[in-house]
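job 3f2a | input accepted
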Amino acid sequence: MTNEYLNKPLPSEKEQQDFYQKLRAKVQNWVDSKPGVVGTVSGYVLFAPDMFHLLTRMMLDSRIDSKSKAAVGAGILYFIAPIDFLPEILVGPGGFLDDVVVAVFVINTVLNKFPTEVITDHWAGDEDLLALVKKISNSGNKYVSKLPAGRLVKRFTK
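job 3f2a | predicted structure (158 res):
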């Protein structure tokens, strides 16, 4: 039996960009509405759309091998999974915090195997990607190894 959904073409570049911009705006509005409560966490949450965009672009890059793409796919699945450590359905965009940490873990793993340009070519964020990855990695690597997606990525990268 064929799944009709899988046979549909990818959304156009414009549709993908529109979705990305809408997600960025939604996260920014959430962060703006919680200035005192969220604090430094909001800075990481703001990178969720950029990280998701980066992972999806990496999946389409022919320079990245299938083993590494499996790790990238695990990161994407963690983003879209309805139930994770901090589910967005319960905590709103603040639930993207764990997704960002998992994405950084995956990106770090791929950065260790490929030239930097392979990843930075796809970066749409405003900040320097490598500095951001280092900053989040320093605070999140211990945390991500305990998450299901973190363990899955470790299996693919051994």
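job 3f2a | The two ends are 35 Å apart (CA to CA).
job 3f2a | closed
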